[in-house]
Design a protein that fits this description.
Blueprint: H1 8-12, H2 22-32, E1 39-43, H3 49-56, E2 64-68, H4 77-86, H5 92-102, E3 108-111, E4 126-131, H6 137-150, E5 151-160, H7 168-180, E6 184-188, E7 192-196, H8 201-212, E8 217-224, E9 227-234, H9 254-267
Parallel strand pairs: 1-2, 1-4, 2-3, 4-5, 6-9
Antiparallel strand pairs: 5-7, 6-7, 8-9
Helix pairs in contact: 2-8, 6-7
Length: about 270
């Protein structure tokens, strides 16, 4: 039986930094890859905020696999220091409790380094992979390779923290993959990089269709090393609708709609 849908309220009930617009971008791309069929994976899960949303998209016959150390001691000193500073207190039990409460089922769980997922999950079978594990360059390079091994030719990979000031290793590994390993950027958000080793057009069209209906987010084209990608970013504050009705009226009609609204008020 497929898992139950996950709402924003469900996600808000789980500790973790998984915010707009990425929640809806995940939903859009998970829906866009449904026709591919295939498995789902997440490398690094914290307490399960994004894993819940990914897991809820699982279809019959698909496998959702996650991998995390869950507080297990690392033999890598740098990785151990990162885990202690960023993930202290994380337990597998807390993750499992959140998944059962929100999604109603558990994924296949691997308690190990993120790179070991290739030893457990089916290779070349995944339609969506989210990478949010170590921020150390050497480890992210391994996660890039693991994601490529897992994905179907047109599958989507998402990298978290690719441009945060405290995670330069993620940025270096991700853009290196674009420049030298054939990774094609689909879009970037304030927090995440979306890409594929396949065709980007279908996914960019899906994201453009989604963002056109969003009052708080917009998109622009950027060119990077010969690649066209979508930058999803917040609408400038001066363009944000101050009245709820503006969410349902095209921008070009705001002046006329405001005039009608004033006339109605005067008559009452």
């Amino acid at each position: 039986m497929p898992p139950r849908p996950v709402t924003d309220a469900d996600i808000d009930s789980i500790v973790g930094a998984f915010f707009a617009p990425d929640r809806d971008m995940f939903r859009t791309l998970l829906d866009a890859t449904r026709g591919l069929g295939g498995d789902l994976a997440e490398l690094g899960v914290l307490y399960g905020a994004s894993a819940a949303l990914v897991g809820a998209a699982r279809q019959e016959g698909e496998v959702f696999t996650v991998v995390d150390l869950f507080g297990k001691e690392s033999s890598d000193d740098s990785n151990a220091a990162e885990n202690e500073s960023s993930y202290a207190g994380l337990t597998r039990a807390a993750f499992e409790a959140n998944m059962m409460r929100v999604v109603g089922e558990l994924p296949t769980i691997i308690e190990d380094y993120s790179s070991t997922i290739v030893e457990h999950a089916r290779l070349g079978s995944h339609r969506f992979v989210h990478v949010d594990a170590s921020h150390l360059y050497e480890h992210v390079v391994g996660d890039v390779r693991a994601a490529r091994a897992l994905l179907k030719p047109d599958g989507i990979v998402v990298f978290d923290d690719f441009r945060a000031e405290h995670t330069p290793g993620v940025a270096a590994a991700v853009w290196q993959a674009v420049l030298t390993e054939g990774l094609r950027p689909v879009a970037v958000s304030p927090h995440k990089f979306y890409g594929t080793w396949g065709e980007v057009g279908t996914y960019q069209e899906a994201l453009r269709a989604w963002v056109e209906g969003e009052p708080l987010w917009t998109a622009e084209w950027q060119s990077v090393s010969g690649h066209q990608l979508l930058r999803i970013h917040a609408v400038p504050s001066w363009q944000v609708p101050r009245h709820p009705w503006k969410r349902f009226v095209p921008v070009a009609l705001w002046p006329a709609a405001a005039k009608v609204r004033r006339l109605i008020r005067r008559r009452h």
